[in-house]
Amino acid sequence: MKKIKKYFFFCFAFIIIYAFFIEPSFVWTKKYTIKSTLYHSNHSMTIVQFSDTHLRNQHDVNHLKIVVKKINKINSDIVIFTGDLISDIRKFSYAKEVNKLLLSIHAKYKKFAIYGNHDHGGYFTEAYEKLLLDSDFIVLKNNIKTLYINSQKVSFIGIDDYMLGKREINSTLSKIEKNSFSIALVHEPDVAKYILHYPVSLQLSGHSHGGQFPFPFSPTLFMPPFAKNYYKGKYVLKNNSLPANEFTTLIVNNGIGTSKIPFRFLTPPELTIIEVKTKSGTNLVTSGR
To answer: Does the record bear Secreted in its keywords (predicted)?
Structure first.
């Protein structure tokens, strides 16, 4: 009996040490490939997504340096940040250093950012936008930016935070340009139920942190609001607004930082790499950068 108690004590101690001091310092990379008839180029498009940095102290800023180095090694076409830069504006005093780091992120075409719920809290709304704009990001707030990437029209739709922002989902999504491969950037993943009424091929979200510590037998028990149905990884969803045999892919990023309690267990910080390709049999166009 004593041996069993000692065994459980050491297991518990290991989990605590690992969850507080080891796993949160990781930066894992997860890659997904999406094939669509709406993407016609014979050159794939590479997107890097990061989310939920929740910067609070110098340690978090140092961790962001590692993240930025990994992003730049990927040499992607597009970089996307899906919100929650900080946890609490009252504890954030690293704007200049963070600006320098975000500015150093490279993308062949553009860098995009949207608001998370923490980016609106504590009168941070305007400061967040200025910081991201000064870091050469395009901040999408209920608007659309269309680019030609590898001669393919790609629309990026940024939805303001569903919890604390201005909800203009329908009026924004109704402006999606025809004949474009459309990507919706939405902090809260469960907003997908509205996104699925529009011709959106890809939704990128964060917010859930993958649960930080998934509860056994009920992984959504401690998930934040609007991250109960979709909370981790890749989901392929039926969308009648898309052509036949096309689906909306939803990708939920684990995030980089932590919220409330600074630990992670089996949900490591991650960068998401999305490679978009044409489905075989579609008409291809020649790249013309």
So the answer is: no
